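Annex B. Sample input.
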Amino acid sequence: MKKTRAIATFFIAASALAANYCYSMDSGKTLDDQHWIHGSEACANNTDEPIQVVQYDTNTWILRQNKCSNYEAPFLYLFIGRNKALLMDTGATKDENQFPIYKTVSAIINSWQVKQNRSVELIVAHTHKHGDHYAGDDQFRNKANTTLVNLEVDDVKTFFGMSHWPEKIASFDLGDRTLKIIPIPGHQEASIAIYDSSSKLLLTGDTFYPGRLYVNDWSSFRQSIQRLTTFTENNEIAYILGNHIEMSAVDGVDYPMGTTYQPNEQKLPLTVADLQTLNFGLQALGDQPARKTYSHFIIYPTD
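Annex B, continued. Sample output.
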């Protein structure tokens, strides 16, 4: 069963010279009709904030990088529990003046801490080891009350206490908020999915999103999609959320790589039915990698 939830959007504009944040609320939306910043025809004239922040619920935020700072425009996710906050990914740009991800996340957490009258430790982890998802890591390095999880498979396994990779699913407690950490290698060997039992959000990184599903290891990818599909059969899913939007709103039509203006994007969330379609397609293709286009995504082997 799919749940919809009212969300509030606020935009954060950060000056390169000072950490001044401006918020403009846009309430009453759901993720199905949420508008995302999507670049400009001429980026020199772009006036969007460097990072768009959408508050999904009291303790959950979705962030999108401006496409004019990097065409990948990745989505990042922040979950806050009673004792810990978890940020998944740090974006595609290193320069904090262009992409102030640490200041933005700190502002969100500080505001939350004041309202809740408590403090939390920040954990910074990654959906996988590709540069557009960890470029901002240095902004968090050596910061107080912050732990940065390293990028290799062994680092991920050790931090989250994951045994029998990739078959076993681990639990990670933020304090009255338990996340499931699901190994999903195939796009990249350290890829993981995150399921939040509170919001019922399933994060699938670059493994499953409205775009080109680049497959590096075909066998592992097929097994990972089967693992995700089985998981959704046994857990309530509100939305499946990936790291990018590359598909247009026209079924089966994607924006070319490097596009910095996507005025007619497909919506961000995918559904359990979409995941089942992908799984069925992969099983039908068997052991032979092949490119195949669907309405909301494209299977895209890299070899």
